[in-house]
Design brief:
451 residues, Rossmann fold, N-(1-d-carboxylethyl)-l-norvaline Dehydrogenase, domain 2, 2 domains, eight-stranded mixed β-sheet, two-stranded antiparallel ribbon, 10 strands
Length: 451
């Protein structure tokens, strides 16, 4: 029996799936040791946090902190919004108690750790502020000015922005070295990733403190440079943009989503756009286009849908209808884009959506957005649900070969436009027979992420 087990283990241990999973495991361990010992020694213990903005995200972050026995202030400027945030936090704790994640008798005491307020009266001993207000720079800067005056000097201000510049935000601060990004993913209580964003002025001590907090909250932190979209949304943007081009070329909503789900993703891009909201996706696409040019420019599909008053799941009118238990493609969507007859092959759907993300990852690596390919793959697996058995987008691309990926992008460029033009870094990898998963081509001792 032992011989049979050893033989079976030997077969499993040499598979690509095993190598991918082990690499992700090691990447997660490395992410939790993101700082050199002399920097890690500067981190402070977090005994009390404040969350600004009591929306779904703010309420979720407050619940997460309380669930891990950290005292929380949940602040909003509107009483009704505050009540909604507190109810959301309580509901999440109640569900955790019913599922055995926490003991049922602990639900009440943990919820009591959350103090809801409309003012800054109890902020004098807060260690970390997590800002989760509306995604507008001038609003966040005013909130930063207001709260900073009430905080102790050591407190860290961590913005939960998903797209705005941490550096620009910090220009409103009296202590810009205490301003960092701490980007949670929705739903907060389920998604294991947080992006920790270093602004130009962010101190090592502030970053180390929020990394320690993220680990205490049960999250895996990935350190990211302050670039538009950070890493996850930057790679997700071209993937979602391609949906419109596929629909224009005759693909169908169901066919696109089924193909990407069969690949291993938790949901297809059309369904994901419904969750994100067409208005939010259009705003992100606009910001990405401003930052990176035409390769991020979306098709007119989102404008067509928002012009029809469709925002996604938030108003029960997206690609799918949500008015009953069965999700179905809305007939109005079918009329807007035509039947198409399923005219795009599954393998082309996969390549057009995912190779864009791979290509964008090489741009990001050249810019030093993350420390290396392992962080790209870890972030996309934990932040988007990219199938772990495939190892992340760069590990998947590695299985195809750098030269083959470059050639396929050139083919797609010729047929569909310059958004598929291989990135200079990818061209260099192909010319030198390099590897998507090796750190060596991207290692720069001067990088701000080298610690």
């Amino acid at each position: 029996a032992l011989a049979i087990e050893a033989e079976a283990l030997g077969e499993v241990a040499t598979t690509d799936v095993c190598r991918n999973l082990v690499r992700l495991f090691r990447g997660g361990r490395a992410a939790n040791r993101a700082f050199a010992p002399e920097i890690a020694a500067q981190q402070r213990e977090v005994r009390k946090v404040a969350v600004l903005g009591a929306g779904v995200m703010g309420g979720g972050i407050a619940e997460l902190a309380a669930a891990h026995d950290i005292a929380v202030i949940l602040k909003d400027i509107d009483r009704d919004a505050l009540d909604v945030g507190l109810r959301h936090a309580n509901e999440l704790l109640q569900k955790a108690g019913k599922r055995g994640i926490i003991a049922p008798e602990e639900v009440g005491p943990k919820f009591a750790l959350i103090h809801g307020t409309l003012d800054y009266e109890r902020f004098g001993d807060v260690d970390v502020v997590i800002e989760a207000v509306v995604e507008r720079l001038h609003v966040k800067q005013q909130v930063l000015r207001d709260v900073e005056a009430e905080l102790p000097a050591h407190a860290v201000f961590a913005t939960n922005t998903s797209s705005l510049s941490v550096t620009e935000l910090s220009r409103a601060a009296a202590r810009p070295d205490r301003v960092v990004g701490l980007h949670f993913f929705n739903p907060v209580h389920r998604m294991p990733l947080v992006e920790v964003i270093r602004g130009e002025s962010s101190s090592d001590a502030a970053l180390a403190t929020v990394v320690r907090l993220a680990r205490r909250l049960g999250k895996t932190p990935v350190l990211v440079a302050d670039r538009p979209g950070f890493i996850v949304n930057r790679l997700l943007a071209p993937y979602l943009n391609e949906v419109g081009f596929l629909l224009k070329d005759g693909a169908e909503v169901v066919g696109i989503d089924r193909t990407l789900k069969d690949f291993g993703l938790p949901m297809g891009p059309c369904r994901l756009l419904d969750e994100v909201g067409f208005d939010v996706a259009a705003h992100v696409a606009k910001e990405m286009t401003r930052a990176f040019g035409d390769r991020m420019r979306p098709s007119a599909a989102l404008e067509t849908l928002t012009g029809l008053g469709r925002l996604g799941k938030k108003n029960d009118r997206g690609f799918y209808t949500y008015s009953d238990r069965e999700e179905r493609v809305d007939r109005e969507v079918s009329r807007a884009f035509g039947s198409g007859g399923g005219g795009v092959r599954p393998e082309e759907i996969i390549d057009r959506c995912l190779l864009l993300s791979v290509n964008e990852a090489t741009y990001a690596l050249e810019e030093g957005v993350v420390a290396g390919p392992g962080d790209v793959d870890l972030a996309m697996v934990l932040g988007t649900g990219f199938p772990p058995f495939r190892g992340g987008p760069l590990a998947w691309a590695e299985s195809r070969g750098v030269g083959a990926v470059r050639d396929r992008l050139l083919e797609l460029q010729e047929r569909h436009g310059d958004r598929f033009a291989p990135a200079p870094g990818l061209e260099r990898l192909a010319a030198t027979n390099g590897s998507f998963t090796s750190d060596a081509p991207w290692r720069d001792p001067g990088s701000p992420l080298e610690m």
